[in-house]
Write the structure tokens for this entry.
Amino acid sequence: MIRKAERVKTLKPSATLAVDAKAKALIKEGVEVINLSIGEPDFDTPSYIKEACKKALDEGLTKYVPSQGILGLREAVCETLKRDYGFDYSPEEVLITSGAKQAIFNFLLALVNPGDEVLVLAPYWVSYPPMIEIAQGIPVIINSTLEEKFEPSVEKIEKAISPKTVGIILNSPSNPTGLIYSEKFLRDLSEIIKKYQLWVLSDDIYDKLRFDFKPPQNILSLAEDLKDRVFIVNGVSKTYAMTGWRVGWLVGPKEVVKVCTDIQGQSTSHATSFAQKAAEVALRGPQEEVERMCKIFAKRANLVSELFSNIPEIQFIAPQGAFYFFAKVSSFYGKKTLEGKEIKNSIDFAEFLLDYAKVAVVPGSAFGDDEFVRFSFANSEENLEKAYFRIKEALNKLN
Ligand SMILES: Cc1ncc(COP(=O)(O)O)c(C=O)c1O
């Protein structure tokens, strides 16, 4: 047997795999499954962005480019941060990556030593804990409840800090809750960050998908003096319906961006050249498409909230951004299906929905909260309504 590296010893297969495999098998059999497990917009990339990519190819942007990313895109990222947040950054403080995912990965590899602790607020995006573990750090999970609007008290966060704590990851609007952190929470948290001299990784990938249509905001908007310890992650995946293009970025203090660039220079080299050009045009071009998509998501968020408010056993907070609906379904645990199978946890519940309603959702355990399941509303209103009626009918059969 070939010996595996220590760093992969804690790597587990994704908790979503079982339901996902089952959904795919059903679809293959010809069953009409409504897939609400998907984490990407159901829109096509706007055509002016595709045209920009074709032009870049025709003009020969098909060779290696600098590891840090093409200057035009790094400048466009700075212009966007100025326009949206009023922040001043220079292109040396920007690293272009193959999606936000690689930005987070490079960052953690650059800053986490074996045994370092990184605070992660649950429910969290599935990839944070495994990425910290690959960097041989320890994810310290801080739980929160629906009643707390998924904002743990600052006292609770402070209690989780040890001499080994190096940083904290924030994500707002959040995947999976669809909620936006309050200004008070971010302000209070900024005091803790300063007191313990932590870094903050602000994953702002859903920042433009806010249903109050206000300008985006992150912890730096409320505590400018944190600029030397806040790192911003973003990308084009969700805002411009460009998940497959793989372009994201990390923005922050130069010396860390430089190390992350060196890591990237020894791994993927850089994000695809012509995709970077398309991303530059996405940021600099007309933003009406983004507004249009956001309005559609907002309408669906309302629709889903209205529909599910008719099932009192399901608790939720109406989404404020992103395209996820996080529903507390634990009041159904302990009930049995017609075949006599007891629903014990979120995986069982997701399997039940797939079997009896032909609706695929992601079990909350994947996000660190087993009392919930996540529905994505990156799907048509028609399908969302159909899914709701199927779910309601299936739930009536539980006893
Ligand atoms: C919270 C969060 N961060 C980062 C990412 C990764 O995005 P990208 O496609 O840019 O790698 C996702 C994608 O699902 C996400 O939900």
Notes: The chain has 13 helices and twelve strands. The chain has a mean pLDDT of 96. The chain has two domains: 6-44+289-394, 61-284. Residues 288-308 form the longest helix (21 residues).
